[in-house]
């Protein structure tokens, strides 16, 4: 009987760990990020982001103030890195040296390495989540939860002609009969901060929820470049193709 109870405790403990709420970590990361930093889409922003994130003897660390100026996907990646760094410091996440190195920013082309995937047009972040098994993706507002990473599409295009935004979703609300949502990202001209937007402006959305950060240890075995994401600079994708690439079909 004692052995059965012991095994039951182990099972419940494992289930609890499996169901850990990493969205709370993302929201805490947003709170701890400095506001401002200016907004820019120029190369200087990618260089600054690369300088802000570093490998300290196997520990992933960053100095967010160094990332100035910063564009939207750079800001959302900063929040992601903050979560991973904190989990390492708590001892709840162990990453190989190769995995830590694979999270650094070296001005990679879209679709290349972890950062190049995150920064890509189309479903960059959600494709990375599906490819590594980091968590789930959804295109339904009903599934959204504060702390999800969110890709907003401002037009119907996916890839070459798209207009998009990479943010952290903070929740929805209704005001004077209009549905809005809050998000954190870097917006022009001031940079990092919290903003509100009418849902009607978002033609299409993809929510990505971090559930298995330990899957980052798969980075060394991940192909150097994802051909689909790499093509998003010069080619268009269909909705059906995109859904297939992020595990929704």
Structural commentary:
With 249 residues, the protein is α+β, with helices and mostly antiparallel strands. Helix content is 35%, strand content 22%. It has helices at 2-18, 23-32, 43-52, 72-90, 97-102, 113-118, 124-132, 227-230, 239-245, and strands spanning 36-37, 53-56, 59-62, 135-138, 149-153, 164-175, 178-187, 191-198, 204-210. The model is unreliable at 1-17 (pLDDT under 50).
Please indicate the percent range of residues in DSSP E strands (runs of 2 or more): 15-25%
Biggest sheet strand line-up: 1-8-7-6-5-9-4
The helix-and-strand class reads alpha+beta
Distance between the termini: 45 Å
Oligomer: single chain
Keywords:
alpha+beta, 7-stranded antiparallel sheet, 249 residues, 9 helices
Helix and strand topology:
Layout: H1 2-18, H2 23-32, E1 36-37, H3 43-52, E2 53-56, E3 59-62, H4 72-90, H5 97-102, H6 113-118, H7 124-132, E4 135-138, E5 149-153, E6 164-175, E7 178-187, E8 191-198, E9 204-210, H8 227-230, H9 239-245
Antiparallel strand pairs: 1-8, 2-3, 4-9, 5-6, 5-9, 6-7, 7-8
Give a nutshell description of this structure:
This protein is an alpha+beta fold and 249 residues long. 35% of the residues lie in helices and 22% in strands.
């Amino acid at each position: 009987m004692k052995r059965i109870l012991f095994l039951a405790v182990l099972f419940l403990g494992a289930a609890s760990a499996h169901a850990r709420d990493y969205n709370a970590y993302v929201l805490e990361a947003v709170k701890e990020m400095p506001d401002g930093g200016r907004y820019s889409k120029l190369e200087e922003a990618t260089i600054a982001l690369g300088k802000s994130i570093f490998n300290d003897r196997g520990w992933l660390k960053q100095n967010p103030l160094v990332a100035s100026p910063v564009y939207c996907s750079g800001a959302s990646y900063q929040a992601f890195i903050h979560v991973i760094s904190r989990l390492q410091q708590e001892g709840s996440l162990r990453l190989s040296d190769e995995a830590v190195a694979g999270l650094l920013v070296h001005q990679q082309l879209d679709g290349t390495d972890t950062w190049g995937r995150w920064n890509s047009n189309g479903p960059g972040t959600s494709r990375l989540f599906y490819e590594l098994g980091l968590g789930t993706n959804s295109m339904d507002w009903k599934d959204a939860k504060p702390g999800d990473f969110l890709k907003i599409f401002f037009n119907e295009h996916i890839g070459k002609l798209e207009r998009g935004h990479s943010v952290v979703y903070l929740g929805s609300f209704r005001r004077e009969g209009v549905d809005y949502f809050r998000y954190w990202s870097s917006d022009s001209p001031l940079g990092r901060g919290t903003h509100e937007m009418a849902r009607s402006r978002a033609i299409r959305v993809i929510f990505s929820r971090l559930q298995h950060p330990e899957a980052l240890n798969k980075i060394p075995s991940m192909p150097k470049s994802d051909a689909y994401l790499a093509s998003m600079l010069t080619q268009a994708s269909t909705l059906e193709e995109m859904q297939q690439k992020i595990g929704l079909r």
